[in-house]
Amino acid sequence: MMNVLPKDLVERCKKRMEPYNCEGFVYGRGPENPEIMIVGEAPGETEIHNGIPFSGRAGKVLDEFFDYLGVSREDIYFTSTVRSRPYKIVPKKAGPNGEFTEKKYNRAPNVKEQTAHAPIVDYEIQHINPKQIVTLGNIGLQRLLGKKYKISEVHGQLLQAPVRQLKNMETNEWTLSEKEYSIFPTFHPASIFYNRSLLEKVYEDLDELKKILKRDTKG
Ligand code: URA
């Protein structure tokens, strides 16, 4: 199942994102009723070119996590807090005469951008019906559970909780879902590039997640 999103919802969310420095649009990908739904941060340059979530550098690390878990990509639904690439433009010296060019760098999506695309994640969670949601990093975690949750404090813990949903697209008010979801936060694979010591923590989290998934399949 490639795309469950209604066209008008996508068009509306693309419009909501227009004021911000975000480019491209990557659809979620994966089956309905998956073992796992991954909620990431935002696509990067690779993803907006090929349309495949987590196909860049962070995706390679994520694939190693799935190998370790023994879960195939086909059993996972991939989405992220925003579906466009947030960027910043930084002037860069280039060439023999030191002339300036501009280069686009990835950055984390801010709250306004997260709110612009919030109806997409809401729709996916409600219609894809994942057994287990795995959030990556603070952005995915806080998008679903709010700012009082910090990845450094709750990573590797199974949380049963309602998730934040955008209540009103005009006023951008939030509410909580009636249903409780099973949410397992861990670090974002890209954070390993900046802090290698997180890798050990991620593998401890994955050991925990392995136990949870086993328990679930046993019923
Ligand atoms: N990070 C994300 O959250 N999503 C991607 O698709 C790539 C990197």
Essential attributes:
Uracil-DNA Glycosylase, subunit E; 219 residues; globular; Uracil-DNA_glycosylase-like; hydrolase; glycosidase; alpha/beta; 4Fe-4S; iron; binds uracil
Describe this structure in words.
The protein has 219 residues and is an alpha/beta fold. It has one domain (7-218): Uracil-DNA Glycosylase, subunit E (3-Layer(aba) Sandwich), CATH 3.40.470.10. 39% of the residues lie in helices and 27% in strands. The protein contains nine helices and eight strands. It has a five-stranded mixed β-sheet. Strands 1-4-5 form a three-stranded antiparallel β-sheet, with no helix packed on it. The longest helix has 21 residues, at 198-218. It is globular. The two termini are 25 Å apart. Bound molecules: uracil. Residues 40-44, 47, 53-54, 56, 58, 80 line the site of uracil. Uracil binds next to loops. It holds the Pfam family UDG. It comes from Rossellomorea oryzaecorticis. It is an enzyme of class 3 (hydrolase).
